């Protein structure tokens, strides 16, 4: 079976590579010639554990091809996945220009039946626009070529994307025809031999499912952050509260960890987009608006705690940061809490020393070395620091030598943005320790 994936960003590259791993012949298409050249040379544009090895293995086997023109393969494939970006407009709605550009190109160059699958996260109604755009191009050519559209939203967690794709807990597919269902079943059956968990539904429901899933998870995070902030005021311990409510099988313990706010390429964008979709249809998503407002406020929490610790006088203070990516196992800094914190620290006149296992290069693109000292390891980061802030819970931050850290710092003050340390241990080593929700 031969397929094409248009767009070699995070979703497109993981999708194409995993399909190739299962024996499908995959054309990964991207108009960025430099990116395609790099991929052919084994240079991967993103950090994702295990992805580089898998890309190179399947490229060398000939199952995975990288090209810059969809027309080069369109007559050889049965299915085309559109995985191009849908960046947010100024109002938060999804920008569909790239999705519709792909649809136009398909309509202008196809000569036989195709199943066109939207993989990008798009608002409800996008597939209808894709179908209309392809048909308009076919009409201009005077051709009556049959085609189907489908929606197949991704549910990949950065840092665990390959595992999620190769062993999915479910695959959601919106389809309009039996022919499309058969093709999608053929594609996904190798991943689900023992338990075929493809959920077929109408296309608008599949489009909505992606937004609803991410918005639900974002809601749980903001809810727990709100509870954590109240816990601090009334003297409760949010970790105890989390365990108590997580033991309820109706609630469960996933995404109940308070912290300094969520970030990344999905939750912030998808929450905003769903709010805008509702507005465009005359409805207000009041709960999601609160979720977004809480999250934006939460990103300033660590800075406010730091201000309070130093009586609102941070000028000249040296602040050490452990972690820059929005979560572990990725170099993604989009909408990361670290960005808000760094901007506030710089505005307050602080000196910043920072370390992240994989996101240093990405951080340096955003903040030059004259603004931030990028450290070589966790101990170099805390040299002469007046306070240490943990932002991202990388494994290598979990068990440092606190005696060594204390000796290197000016003052042993630690703000834990992810609640990964034990209060008693830090206090035994003489640290002033601040957590979230206690």
Supply Rg.
24 Å
Which bin fits the share of residues in helices? 40-55%
How many domain regions?
3
Helical stretch count?
17
Number of strands: 14
Cα-to-Cα separation, first versus last residue:
55 Å
What is the CATH topology classification name of the largest domain? Rossmann fold
Broad shape: elongated
Q: Main beta sheet: strand number and arrangement?
A: 6 strands, parallel
Question: Major sheet: order of its strands?
Answer: 3-2-1-4-5-6
Level-2 CATH architecture of the largest domain: 3-Layer(aba) Sandwich
Output the CATH homologous superfamily of the largest domain: NAD(P)-binding Rossmann-like Domain
Can you tell me the CATH class of the largest domain?
A: Alpha Beta
Overall pLDDT metric = 95
Class based on secondary structure composition and strand pairing: alpha/beta
Task: Provide a short characterization of the protein structure.
It is built from 17 helices and 14 strands.
Architecture overview:
The chain is α/β, with parallel strands linked by helices and 438 residues long. It has three domains: 2-201, Rossmann fold; 211-297, Rossmann fold; 299-434, 3-Layer(aba) Sandwich (Rossmann fold), CATH 3.40.50. The protein is 43% helix and 14% strand. It has 17 helices and 14 strands. It has helices spanning 10-21, 33-40, 51-61, 97-109, 126-141, 161-166, 178-188, 203-234, 238-246, 267-280, 286-298, 301-309, 337-347, 360-366, 378-381, 402-408, 423-428, and strands spanning 2-6, 25-29, 64-67, 79-82, 114-118, 147-151, 171-174, 198-201, 318-322, 351-355, 372-374, 387-390, 413-416, 432-434. A six-stranded parallel beta sheet has the order 3-2-1-4-5-6, sandwiched between helices. A six-stranded parallel beta sheet has the order 11-10-9-12-13-14. Strands 7-8 form a two-stranded parallel sheet. Strand 13, helix 17 and strand 14 (432-434) form a beta-alpha-beta unit. Helix 8 (203-234) crosses helix 10 (267-280). The radius of gyration is 24 Å and the shape is elongated. 44% of the residues are buried. The mean pLDDT is 95.
């Amino acid at each position: 079976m031969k397929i094409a994936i248009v767009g070699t960003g995070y979703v497109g590259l993981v999708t194409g590579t995993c399909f190739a791993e299962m024996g499908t012949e995959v054309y990964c298409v991207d108009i960025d010639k430099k990116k395609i050249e790099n991929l052919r040379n084994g240079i991967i544009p993103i950090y994702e554990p295990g992805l580089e090895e898998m890309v190179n293995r399947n490229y060398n086997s000939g199952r995975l091809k990288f090209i810059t023109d969809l027309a080069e393969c369109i007559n050889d494939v049965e299915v085309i996945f559109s995985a191009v970006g849908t960046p947010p407009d100024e109002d938060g709605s999804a920008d569909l220009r790239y999705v519709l550009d792909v649809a136009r190109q398909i309509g202008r160059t196809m000569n036989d039946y195709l199943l066109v699958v939207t993989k990008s996260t798009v608002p409800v109604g996008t597939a209808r626009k894709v179908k209309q755009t392809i048909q308009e191009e076919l009409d201009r050519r005077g051709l009556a070529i049959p085609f189907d559209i489908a929606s197949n939203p991704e549910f990949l967690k950065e840092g665990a994307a390959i595992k999620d794709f190769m062993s999915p807990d479910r695959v959601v597919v919106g389809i309009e025809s039996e022919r499309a269902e058969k093709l999608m079943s053929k594609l996904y059956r190798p991943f689900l031999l023992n338990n075929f968990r493809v959920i077929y539904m109408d296309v608008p429901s599949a489009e909505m499912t992606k937004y609803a899933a991410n918005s639900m998870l974002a809601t749980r995070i903001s809810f727990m952050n709100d509870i954590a902030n109240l816990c601090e005021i009334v003297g409760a311990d949010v970790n105890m509260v989390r365990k108590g409510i997580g033991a309820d099988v109706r609630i469960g313990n996933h995404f109940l960890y308070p912290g300094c706010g969520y970030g990344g390429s999905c939750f912030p964008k998808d929450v905003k987009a769903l709010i805008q979709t509702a507005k465009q249809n005359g409805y207000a998503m009041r709960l999601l608006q609160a979720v977004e407002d809480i999250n934006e406020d939460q990103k300033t929490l660590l800075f406010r705690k730091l201000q309070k610790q130093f009586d609102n006088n941070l000028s000249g203070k040296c602040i050490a940061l452990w972690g820059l990516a929005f979560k572990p196992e990725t170099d993604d800094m989009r909408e990361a809490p670290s960005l808000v914190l760094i901007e506030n620290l710089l505005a307050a006149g602080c000196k910043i020393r920072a370390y992240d296992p994989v996101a240093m290069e990405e951080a340096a693109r955003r903040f030059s070395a004259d603004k931030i000292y990028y450290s070589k390891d966790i101990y170099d980061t805390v040299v002469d620091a007046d306070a240490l802030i943990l932002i991202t819970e990388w494994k290598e931050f979990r068990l440092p030598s606190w005696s060594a850290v204390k000796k290197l710092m000016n003052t042993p003050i630690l703000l834990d943005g992810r609640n990964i340390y034990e209060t008693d241990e830090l206090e035994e080593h003489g640290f002033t320790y601040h957590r979230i929700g206690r």
